[in-house]
Design brief:
Radius of gyration: 16 Å
Helix content: 40-55%
Oligomer: single chain
Structural class: mainly alpha
Length: 115
Amino acid sequence: MGCFTAQLIFGFRPQGEKDVEHHMKQFTDNREIAENVIAVKPKFKLGEIEGILVGPLENFEPDLVILIVDSGQSLPLIEAYGIATGKDLSFRNGVSSALCSYGAVVSYQTKKPNL
């Protein structure tokens, strides 16, 4: 997996000093904030999942489907979820890791859509 932070998020490697340094270079010069940003990101435990399989939906039964859409495309999807389930949605987001942490991990763990 090419993305260094995604390796941590998906539980493929333990957290290390390089993670803090990376976040300090990209987002803040404050070490405590960098550590907190890493700490609050949703992630899998080390070794919790074995890997990620990506492919056409007709080839296997997925545990998660990720759609890359714009705001105009997302509204009908959100409304369709509400109509199908009778439930509303709340969304969770944070600094970086939008697709892996706040997209894949949150949706996988809650079994609900997330933006």
